[in-house]
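Subject: Sanity check before I submit

Could someone independently write out the structure tokens for this chain? I want to compare against mine line by line before I put it in a report. The sequence has 299 residues.
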Amino acid sequence: MDVELAVADRAETSQTIFRRSWSRSTRSRQVFIVTGGLIVAVFLVAAIAPGLLTSHNPDALYVGPPTVGPSAQHLLGTDELGRDFYARVVYGARSSLLMSVIIVAIGAALGTVVGVAAGLFGGWLDEVLMRIVDLFLSLPGFVLALALAAALGRGERSVVIALSVIWWPGYARLFRGMVLGMKHRLHVESARALGAGHFRIARKHMLPFMWGQLNARVTQDLGYALVSVAGLSFVGLGAQPPASEWGSLLQSGLQYVATAWWLTLFPGLAITLWTVGIAMLGDGLSGFIRGEREAGERD
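---
Independent answer below. Compare away.
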């Protein structure tokens, strides 16, 4: 009897500890989700409807004296041609975020198809696809993107193509591993025994269990992709003047860094804030999904 009571007390204590830790981690996730969501929302407004945040034309010349610091008339100062720099940073969100979203979307879609096909079919198809993936992963990604963008010519399209080419192998490797881990689970084996084909098994019995991992990877990559886009634009391969794009704004402001510090500070700050915001949102959402799954398993 005493042993049973001790076991019951220990179980109750462990459940109490779990509930307390779950409550603390839930509050932490909520803070991450709310903070990251607010940052991301501001940038999305800037990308979708920049006119709501500024009334200035980002390409209008000499709306103020050249290279004048932040003031009430020009919140982030003016550039070397007298353009309102706040307007250029705000409008730069559209180009920068759009390119990063397209790159991640292409990489995730192509990598998911390749990874699921390799893991599900196996055999020679798996060998061929994974050797191609290994080839891409063995090369320095940014250097390969740099070479591809230079070969394709300067411009936003070249940046999107070059980065999409190096982005999908990581997703292919990730999803192949997840498919191999689920391939012999009971619900998958049952569906196969009932005559379900590969496509139905993947769509109905595998992909729904992968959304948490996909969400975490995509939100992380949206930050990394933006940094890569800005990097290619910084070396002159991305958006060309007079386009407003954060990487090109950094590149053009570099020569004035000693006299007009705001021309490099604010585009760099925008890149940093977006990366931090999307990472916080992704961490919060993936932690919430993971925590809900663990709580369900414990119950």
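---
OP: Matches mine. For the report I'm noting this point. The two ends are 25 Å apart (CA to CA).
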